[in-house]
């Protein structure tokens, strides 16, 4: 595809010799493959391997979804809500995503007692 773009006269790479275009393509391909391998390695490192880690992840998701997210929604709609720092349409559009991210991180933290209690209970019963 890059070669087809380079062959058109109005493309910035059209003035480059074919070898330079090929080097640019190889460099981009190399950079892309490195980035992909780093992302894959990061995702592989985040996969829970032990039973306790799997229980902790499941319990964290349950606590975030069933307990913390409704609390955040209620707090956002309370009478203390102020438009002083309101973000308009962008805030309205992204508020739920922010709340989900906050509750996920809070429930997954090592010091959230409700998640810890649920993990202990599930570990004994499962």
Please provide a written account of the structure.
This protein is mostly helical. Helices cover 74% and strands 0% of the residues. It contains five helices and no strands. The chain has helices at residues 2-7, 18-45, 51-76, 89-108, 113-125. Helix 3 runs antiparallel to helix 4. The longest helix has 28 residues, at 18-45.
Query: How is the main sheet built?
Result: none
| Overall shape | flat
Q: Strand pairing plus helix content: what structural class?
A: mainly alpha
Helix content: over 70%
State Rg: 24 Å
Ranges where pLDDT stays below 50 over 5 or more residues in a row are: none
Q: Please report the distance between the alpha carbons of the first and last residues.
A: 53 Å
What's the total helix number? 5
């Amino acid at each position: 595809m890059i070669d087809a773009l380079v062959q058109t006269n109005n493309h910035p790479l059209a003035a480059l010799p074919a070898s330079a275009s090929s080097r640019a393509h190889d460099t981009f391909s190399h950079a892309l493959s490195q980035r992909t391998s780093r992302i894959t390695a990061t995702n592989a490192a985040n996969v829970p391997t032990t039973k306790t880690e799997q229980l902790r992840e499941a319990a964290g998701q349950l606590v975030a979804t069933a307990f913390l997210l409704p609390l955040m929604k209620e707090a956002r709609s309370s009478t203390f809500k102020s438009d002083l720092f309101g973000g308009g349409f962008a805030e309205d559009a992204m508020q739920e995503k922010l709340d989900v991210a906050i509750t996920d991180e809070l429930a997954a933290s090592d010091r959230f007692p409700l998640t810890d209690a649920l993990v202990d209970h599930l570990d004994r019963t499962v």
